[in-house]
Design a protein that fits this description.
By secondary structure, the protein is an alpha+beta fold. It has nine helices and 18 strands. The strands form six sheets. Strands 6-7-12-10-11 form a five-stranded antiparallel β-sheet. Strand 10 and strand 11 form a beta hairpin. The protein is globular. It binds uridine-diphosphate-2(N-acetylglucosaminyl) butyric acid.
């Protein structure tokens, strides 16, 4: 624990607001996590000054914006949590620029309301705009890597600020060079928009069906946004304080990509257990992507597992979301995650990898 007075002194001139013993549960969508000292940065200058000061002093920091992809230990965090509370959004005709802390769905909503397309498939995703390139957020056939124009980064080693092109970020499925790395901090993002008001091509079958469209067709952005929000809400993937199925970090595991050489072996393991079933798979670079939600359910962990009395359960709407029913701790969630991961591995020989960033804990 860094003494509070030292933190206050260090950050006095940065413009950050420092608070002590803040329960991190209140700042994350899983609503778990113990206390920490929090430095809240309401503008980009304060954010840059705060991170530079903490880095120069060698104080460990945790960046927290929307808190929708974090599993924080019950013991909290011993360094300083830097709360990214910036929120500026600038809408142009063919682009939108958002500060890192801007609420992502508000950014999407603003583009659609202005008659611009391109981001509508990414509607309803919890969290901040600045987090979207870090894990290359994707949903309903659109990935951040494909719509991002550039990212404004603070290089934490040199202290320099620059705009980086998507090619520099090494994007992959739910990953980029910004994930699991402390090298750079996202200050702002810029996305390309479609000026004719149409959506990105509808490449996700479920969404195309919902809109009576053929796969690959476009539709006006507004009804596509509405359809995405409906589909997400049906899966408990739109934040709603009153609905514990949404007290989650979204998908807790990534969909496993099985290398081409192992695909037959995995299919055989599934058939041995399930009999002759159609296994949902998707083409992926280097192999075949299996559906984690499907594997979890077929390994015996149905929606709502392990039952109504458990503090941490699988969502009753989607097996890929681990949820806090109100009183869960980080350990409860980790126990559940291990049970599910190990069960799937035992049955099907596939090891699921967690998607959220863990702080002070590991699976
Ligand atoms: N399935 C089940 N049981 C369930 C849920 C799903 O068997 O309870 C099976 C079904 O066969 C279904 C398949 O899983 O057809 C795929 O389900 P879904 O369409 O919901 O997509 P997903 O692969 O589970 C991914 C992303 C989501 C994103 C949706 C829609 C990952 C890890 N997750 O989920 O992203 O919203 O596609 O594009 O890639 C997130 O990353 O946090 C996230 C929510």
């Amino acid at each position: 624990m860094v003494p509070l007075d030292d933190v206050r002194k260090l950050l006095a001139a940065t413009g950050a607001r420092v608070r002590d013993s803040v329960p991190l549960a209140g700042l994350t969508t899983l609503r778990v996590g113990g206390p920490a000292t929090v430095a809240e940065c309401g503008d980009t200058d304060a954010l840059v000054a705060t991170v530079r000061a903490l880095d120069a002093a060698g104080i460990p920091l945790l960046l927290l914006a929307g808190g929708s992809n974090l599993l924080v230990a019950d013991a909290g965090f011993g360094g300083v949590v830097v709360r990214v509370a910036t929120g500026g959004v600038e809408l142009g005709e063919d682009r939108v620029v958002a500060e890192a802390g801007a609420n992502w769905d508000a950014v999407v909503a603003a583009t659609v309301a202005a008659g611009s397309g391109g981001l509508e498939c990414l509607s309803g995703i919890p969290g901040s705009a600045g987090a979207t390139p870090v894990q290359n957020v994707g949903a309903y056939g659109v990935e951040v890597a494909r719509v991002l124009r550039r990212v404004r980064l603070l290089d934490r080693a040199s202290g320099e600020i620059h705009w980086a092109a998507p090619e520099e970020l090494d994007f992959g499925y739910r990953t980029s060079m910004l994930k699991h790395s402390d090298r750079a901090l996202v200050l702002a993002v810029e996305f390309a928009l479609r000026t004719d008001g149409t959506s990105a091509p509808l490449n996700y079958r479920e969404l195309a069906h919902a809109l009576d469209a053929a796969e690959g067709q476009s539709r006006p952005a507004a009804p596509v946004r509405e359809a995405v929000l409906r589909l997400r809400a049906g899966k408990g993937m739109v934040l709603d304080m009153a609905d514990h199925d949404t007290w989650s970090a979204g998908s807790f595991f990534t969909n496993p990509v099985v290398p081409a050489a192992r695909v037959d072996e995995v299919r055989a393991a599934v058939s041995a257990y399930m009999g002759d079933v159609t296994i949902p798979t998707y083409p992926a670079a280097g192999g075949v992507k299996f559906s984690a939600g499907w594997l979890i359910e077929r390994a015996g962990f149905g929606k709502g597992f392990p039952g109504p009395d458990a503090p941490a359960r699988l969502s009753t709407k989607h097996t890929l979301a681990l949820t806090n029913r109100g009183a869960a701790t980080a350990s409860d969630l980790l126990d559940l995650a291990r049970t599910v991961r190990d069960g799937v591995e035992e049955r099907f020989g596939i090891r699921l990898e967690p998607e959220p960033v863990t702080v002070g804990v590991t699976l």
